[in-house]
Amino acid sequence: MRRVFRPVLIPLVAATLLAAAPGGPLPGFPAESARVEREWENRFRAVPSPDSLRAYTRLLSARPHHVGSPYDKANAEWLRARLASWGWDARLERFDVLFPTPRTRLVELVAPARFRAKLEEPAVPGDPTSAQRAEQLPTYNAYSVDGDVTAPLVYVNYGVPADYDRLERLGVSVKGAIVIARYGGSWRGIKPKVAAEHGAVGCLIYSDPRDDGYWVTDVFPGGPARPRDGVQRGSVEDMPTYTGDPLTPGIGSVPGAPRLPLDSVKVLSRIPVLPLSYGDAEPLLAALKGPLAPAEWRGALPLTYHVGAGPARVHLVVKSNWDIKPIYDVIARIPGTEAPDEWVVRGNHYDAWVNGAVDPISGQVSLLEEARGLGELLKQGWKPRRTIVYAAWDGEEPGLLGSTEWVETHAEELDRHAVAYLNSDVSIRGFLGAGGSHSLEAFINGVARDITDPETGLSVWKRAQLHAIGRGTADERREARERGDLRIDPLGSGSDYTPFLQHAGIASLNLAFQDDAVAPSGYAGVYHSIYDDFTWATHFGDTSFVYGRALAQLMGTAVMRLASAEVVPYEFGGLADNVGKYTGEVKKLLADRQDQARERNRELAEGVFAAINDPRAPEAPPPAAGLPPFLNFAPLDNGVAALDRSAKRYDGLLEQVTRVGWAGGAAPAPTALAGLNEKLIRTERTLTLPDGLPGRPWFRHQIYAPGFYTGYGVKTLPGVREAIEQGRWDEANQQIGRLGGVLEAEAQAIDEAAAALEPLAAGQ
Ligand SMILES: [Zn+2]
After folding, report:
1. 494 alpha carbon to ligand 1 midpoint, in Å?
2. How far is the CA of 139 from the centre of ligand 1 (A)?
3. How far is the CA of 722 from the centre of ligand 1 (A)?
4. Counting beta carbons within 10 angstroms of the beta carbon of residue 234, is it exposed (0 to 12), middle (13 to 18) or buried (19 or more)?
5. For residue 294, what are the contacts with CB-CB under 8 A and spacing of at least 6?
6. Do the strands 386-393 and 339-349 form a parallel or antiparallel pair, or are they unpaired?
């Protein structure tokens, strides 16, 4: 068991008082308005309460609440009523979406011995909701096609493309086989996709205890890790192509919307797929012979890992009810006073695979507590400048359905009005994790400096900085010490920010607290199982709900600041710096591929592979590599240089307004401010192209996308990076040109904002 670092606790009351009055300038707020803003923020941060968060969590996770279930609808109505009672204009917005649920599931070993997988998660003593059998959705992968196949089994490690190259060298083909892949290494939907590309006819995905079980730490209920029969449910919709209702790509699935016929949908898996526990996977893996699995492929089950094919033969059956189900987004508004047509949107989903006390309720309860806090401020006379929209999304788990359909339905309004989207989802305890648009990097660093970490009494920013120093590489340490702001992560996918950021081009943030001492992603052990419930949350998660309070304070402060800054508080230095970094990465990627190709061909010529091969366990040499050509990165370099110049000019002017104030000492005419902010809002849109990325037009953002072969994992500068990774050199050249044009356009958009700001800024 890994030791959990437990810092000395500072009494909470003292810590709260300590943080009660942060000072300093606020970018976008000239001096007097910063003082007023800080006063309202301090009042807001006093509202969120761990007791409320605990009560909401208990209620919202009391019964299974997946899409289309009675308790999911009950939760929607309860959320709407709470928001309305706090003074919000709150309503439900309905969409009708394709949501398959399992009718027949079968996995059986038919040779060399017989074994039938349970495909069930047992109730656990001391965990009352784990016994709610009648309402639990069975273990399955949503959007798997129907199928009934019997075939030899092959173990494919994580089932990413490189694993198939290795199998080929081992002389093992998956053509006509059923593959068994372990969870991890990529998003789950990638596994059946790549398996089908290689000719497999079925796919099983299991949780190996090496990554997700007793190897990590003690298993539930004695510890937080995945127990023997715990199964990770989840969607295998091909979300790197598009998200949302599979039947209505690009448009809202409102009543009467045109729908694709099921047999022409491109985002279902091409082969049947089911998830397994390690209890169910063990007899299947134990029945494999053939080559020994490479050392790095072996998991932590008590068996010798072989890849097959066979002699294990498996019979796999998956059949679903292919129903259209209603989903209900809860949408609540506070209208803005001076700039009602500028919207700040904040969301978290409320649907779960089962009880979902952590995923998604841990984030949802913070959202709710923020809404209560903002409602309190309204009663005290607070008036946000911009319109605030709070959203509790339905249908996130199957494919970001609620958020995507809402974004697609309101695309035109959002294009004109949306200033920013702030997302949360799973959040437990520990260190702040922040990802998002780099035009908001400086902004969110500023907010994080004003929020107190409940376990250390430091600011959550300071704790995150020290974490980066304590756990980072030498480069990360240097950067954490010397760069003024902590770098925020670029966003791939896996939660509701995707339609906002990557489809609609709205500057977005995704924030969470996470604990890297428990497991790589914090609470991995019960992810998408029946054990993600109130019992787990109150024994192993944010047990005293103080991090739920910190998340509410952080998010609510960010919303208030975005909603009331006179100048929308984007800064562009972080964007230029990060895009410059990514440009360096894609150049290095090409250089590395050239080096690897040269080295491989040299080793082939030297006879290295033949000499080190074990003739008794032969592995074929890799094929000779084509040498990647040189590419002309000049359009990217020029784009980055232009971006850097414009960013410096704009950020300098904003700093001047923040520090010295407005020209003439009085606020500018409302039309002048509106014109400036409109230009600022366009800057994130400018990073998108209407025809999107190669082969996936729905993904329009040119800086951030989920990887076509990694799923949730981000690919920055995706058009260029993926063309290089996949050896499509003409496309790489084209994409460099397009991206260079996007960066030049972005520089120009920032320059236009600077030109609008300059006459408003007071002299030095
Ligand atoms: Zn979630």
Report:
1. 8
2. 17
3. 27
4. buried
5. 157, 166
6. parallel
Q: List, in order, residues 6 or more apart from 23 with CB less than 8 Å away.
A: 38
Rounded to whole angstroms, the Cα distance separating 710 from 730 reads 23
CA of 464 to the centre of ligand 1 (A): 23
Cα-to-centroid distance, 349 and ligand 1 (Å) = 7
Cβ neighbours of 745 (radius 10 Å): 17
Distance (Å) from CA 394 to ligand 1 centroid: 10
Q: How far apart are CA 464 and CA 452, in angstroms?
A: 12
Q: What are phi and psi of 63, to 5 degrees?
A: -140, 160
**Rounded CA gap, 659 and 399, in Å?**
45
Query: Residue 467: how many CA atoms within 13 Å on its side-chain side?
Result: 22
- Whole-number Å distance, alpha carbon 132 to ligand 1 midpoint, is 21
The C-alpha atoms of residue 292 and residue 295 are separated, in whole angstroms, by 8
* 62 Cα to the center of ligand 1, angstroms: 17
Predicted TM-score (pTM) of the model is 0.95
Distance from the alpha carbon of residue 427 to the mean position of ligand 1, in angstroms: 10
201 within 8 A of 149, measured Cβ to Cβ: yes
Cβ–Cβ contacts within 10 Å for residue 54, how many? Answer: 19
Distance in Å, CA 424 to ligand 1 centroid: 8
Work out whether strand 386-393 and strand 308-334 pair parallel, antiparallel, or are unpaired. Answer: antiparallel
pLDDT averaged per 10 residues in sequence order, the chain, 764 residues = 33 39 83 92 98 98 98 98 98 98 98 97 96 97 98 98 96 98 93 97 97 92 94 96 97 94 95 98 98 97 96 98 97 98 98 97 98 98 98 98 98 98 95 97 98 96 95 93 96 96 98 73 81 95 96 98 98 98 98 97 95 90 94 98 98 95 89 97 98 97 93 92 97 98 98 97 74
Ligand 1 center to 192 CA (angstroms): 22
Locate 745 and state its tokens: 């356009």
Residue 319 has which token pair? 């059949």
| CA 222 – ligand 1 centroid, Å | 24
User: How remote is the C-alpha of 604 from its chain's centroid?
Assistant: 41
Report the alpha-carbon distance of residue 303 to residue 294 in Å, rounded. Answer: 14
Could you tell me the distance, in angstroms and rounded to a whole number, from the CA of residue 691 to the centre of ligand 1? 29
Q: Which residues neighbour 261 within 8 Å (Cβ) at sequence distance 6 or greater?
A: none
| Residues 212, 697: Cα–Cα separation, whole Å | 35
Query: What residues have CB less than 8 Å from 694, skipping those under 6 apart?
Result: 719, 722, 723, 731, 735
User: What's the token pair of residue 198?
Assistant: 């290689």
Q: How far is the CA of 360 from the centre of ligand 1 (A)?
A: 4
DSSP state of 133: G
What's the CA gap between 127 and 55, in Å, rounded? Answer: 17
Closest CA to 446 of 22, 9, 3: 22
d(C-alpha 497, C-alpha 424), whole Å: 9
Answer yes or no: are the C-beta atoms of 72 and 356 closer than 8 Å. Answer: no
Question: Token digits for 256?
Answer: 């009467």
Give residue 396 CA to ligand 1 midpoint distance, Å. 7
Between the CA of 203 and the centroid of ligand 1 the distance, in Å, is 24
If residue 371 lies in a helix (H) or strand (E), which one and from where to where?
A: helix 361-379
Q: Are the CB atoms for 748 and 638 separated by under 8 Å?
A: no
CB–CB of 747/645 below 8 Å?
Answer: yes
Spacing, Cα 289 to ligand 1 middle (Å): 38
The CA 563 to ligand 1 mean position distance, Å, reads: 26
